[in-house]
Amino acid sequence: MRLVVQGPAITMAHLSHIHGLIGGHTQFMQLAAHAYYLPVSEGDYLDVKAFCASQQIDCALVEDRQRLSHIGLCVMDMDSTLIAIECIDEIADMMQLKPQVAEITEAAMRGELDFSASLRKRVALLKGLPASALQRVIEERLTFNPGAQTWVNTCKQNGIKTMVVSGGFTFFADYVKDTLGLDYAVSNTLAITDGKLTGEVVGEIVDAQRKADELIHLRDALGLEASQTIAIGDGANDLAMMQVAGIGVAYHAKPVVQQQAMYALNIVGLDGVANLLTI
């Protein structure tokens, strides 16, 4: 196994302290500007994890077989994972409804509400909004999370197919796919009539199970094993796809997701995923 530590706050003093906690003889080796790894034997390393958490450092124990060269597919959530906003909350803000909608969104991401029901409830509040507001969200509010483009580029360089699968909306998912250069995009479609949102979603909602199903379907179509897949997300509706993936990464995620994911990144950007899987 290898212990991977990363974060902009890392100093040589941090590495020395971690090394002392482990008591090994091998020195840390650098992976990137703020990322290092150390070969270790199996164990919990609770003291190391506690120290890293207190120092704003991400750490993970990674199995040696988990490397970029073994991965063939990465499936990612969109809102608050690839991008820094929840699109539906920003759409709602244009109707002065952001607090009400954001409260429902947050509860759904924590796993306290059924996702499909909560989405229909939120979308219903948007009835009558001009469809032009969707483009305004892209132009005025949508930003990518740190490291998103770097991670996608790394996937391309290693022959890894990429897909965004989102409980959000096609208008944004297609933009994210085209801008980052992803291979596939699956998301919900907002119903629009006479240039205005009807307050309804067209077709089957992309919920937790649909996300998992889409990963499995594409994995099988590509002829891959489960161990060759990665799922990255932040909310409770991402847990099902993480569980069917070989590697599940919680990115700046809700506590329930961090507890169940294989790895959690709370400090670094999405490029940190590459550091977990690169030697």
UniProtKB/TrEMBL annotation:
Pfam families according to UniProt: HAD
CC terms in the record's Gene Ontology section: cytoplasm
Source taxon at top rank: Bacteria
Coiled coil (residue ranges): none
Residues forming the catalytic site: 77 (nucleophile), 79 (proton donor)
Listed Gene3D superfamilies: 3.30.70.2020, HAD superfamily/HAD-like, Phosphoserine phosphatase, domain 2
InterPro entries: HAD-like_SerB, HAD-like_sf, HAD_sf, PSP
Presence of keyword Phosphoprotein: no
Pathway of action: Amino-acid biosynthesis; L-serine biosynthesis; L-serine from 3-phospho-D-glycerate: step 3/3
Top EC class for this record: hydrolase
Molecular-function GO terms, alphabetical: L-phosphoserine phosphatase activity; magnesium ion binding
Entry cofactors: Mg(2+)
GO biological process, one term: L-serine biosynthetic process
Keyword annotations of the record: Amino-acid biosynthesis, Hydrolase, Magnesium, Metal-binding, Serine biosynthesis
Reactions accelerated catalytically: O-phospho-D-serine + H2O = D-serine + phosphate; O-phospho-L-serine + H2O = L-serine + phosphate
Protein family: Belongs to the HAD-like hydrolase superfamily. SerB family.
Protein name: Phosphoserine phosphatase
Native organism taxonomy: Bacteria, Pseudomonadati, Pseudomonadota, Betaproteobacteria, Nitrosomonadales
